[in-house]
Design brief:
The protein has about 300 residues and is α/β, with parallel strands linked by helices. The protein contains 8 helices and 17 strands. It binds flavin-adenine dinucleotide (FAD). The site of flavin-adenine dinucleotide (FAD) has 41 residues, from α1 and α8. Pfam families: Pyr_redox_2.
């Protein structure tokens, strides 16, 4: 059977896109392998009507909304190959099943790449986070660390000073600041420590200190990391979609990529990473798919 739309990724972006496409009376499948970027966190914040829910609860609520529409299917499966056959697309699941579809929405999200240091994976999502808008409130006024090995360090340090006045930036042996930037931070009582971090000490993910290469131990109750990120799935590049200079997928306001029939939405666009924004982008891409399908149906009838 030829589907109207296949969505790869069942996070807020993909589920929201599915809702719009399904309500637009088109046959749609969402493929998801259940590895969302925020699976390490216990609570999600800042998504109005969902504030404080776990990522899993938000996903469950989204999937429950989709149950009302017979045109929408969810398949817990990893897509391992996408082919552009000009007229349509062919998708292959890890289990070896093939699906043909008129349109594709890439809602595959991003992957965080954390700096290498002992203990970081244990505290990430519990007391170490990547976005102050998501978790700054929970850590407010506490002694915090910012682990930043890249040029985002200055921007993040300034931003975090809004949530705590007790902030130390750890560059983990990298020279990320110019002298005048260090002076600026120092003028705002933000210390910079360039010594490499040997390990993060914690108890069940609750950070209590950072152990440095020179033997010093610095007490910190939590913090943020300026992590690097990459696309979770290679399909945009494989299909030849134009990418932005920060590694996101380029789209227009309706989620259309530069490749005809391929749409994208959510974190993989490379903009601010927020659940509500991913859901909004999914909704836009869903509308884009419906616009295109309806337009094509009109054209087909006119050319008869
Ligand atoms: C630690 C942390 C905490 C966060 N906390 C918050 C918060 O409190 N509030 C907030 O608003 N935002 C938060 N975020 C950001 C939020 O997680 C993202 O903005 C949001 O998840 C993006 O949604 P998405 O649908 O684009 O991607 P995701 O939620 O990452 O979903 C993408 C889905 O695609 C699937 N997928 C990928 N490739 C394939 C494939 N080949 N086949 C099948 N499925 C595939 C993945 O398994 C995943 O389920 C946090 C992020 C992190 C890292």
């Amino acid at each position: 059977m030829l589907l109207d739309c296949a969505i790869i990724g069942g996070g807020p972006a993909g589920l929201s896109a599915a809702l719009v496409v399904g309500r637009g009376r088109k046959q749609v499948i969402v493929f998801d392998d259940e590895l969302p970027r925020n699976r390490v966190t216990q609570k999600s914040h800042g998504f109005i009507t969902n504030d404080g829910m776990t990522p899993f609860e938000i996903r469950q609520a989204g999937e429950a909304d989709l149950q009302n529409y017979p045109h929408i299917q969810i398949k817990r499966s990893r897509i391992i190959e996408v082919q552009n056959n000009e007229e349509n697309f062919s998708l292959l699941t890890q289990e070896g099943e093939r699906f043909e579809t008129k349109k594709i929405i890439l809602a595959t999200g991003l992957k965080d790449i954390l700096p290498e240091m002992k203990g970081i994976h244990e505290v990430y999502g519990k007391t170490l986070f990547s976005c102050p808008f998501c978790d700054g409130w929970e850590l407010k006024d506490r002694p915090l660390a910012l682990i930043a090995e890249n040029p985002r360090a200055l921007h993040m340090a300034k931003l975090l000073s809004n949530w705590t006045k007790d902030l130390i930036v750890f560059t983990n042996g990298k020279q990320v600041f110019a002298e005048e930037e260090k002076a600026l931070l120092s003028a705002h009582s933000i210390q910079v420590i360039d010594e490499p971090i040997m390990s993060i000490h914690h108890e069940n993910g609750q950070m209590h200190s950072l152990h440095l290469a020179d033997g010093e131990t610095v007490n910190r109750e939590g913090g943020f990391v300026a992590s690097e990120f990459k696309q979770s799935a290679p399909f945009a590049e494989i299909l030849g979609c134009q990418m932005t200079k920060n590694g996101g997928i380029e789209t227009d306001i309706l989620g259309r990529t530069t490749v005809s029939g391929v749409f994208a939405c959510g974190d993989n666009l490379g903009g601010p990473a927020q659940l509500v924004l991913a859901a909004a982008a999914g909704s836009q891409a869903g509308m884009g798919v419906i616009h295109e399908l309806v337009q094509e149906e009109f054209q087909e009838k006119t050319s008869l």
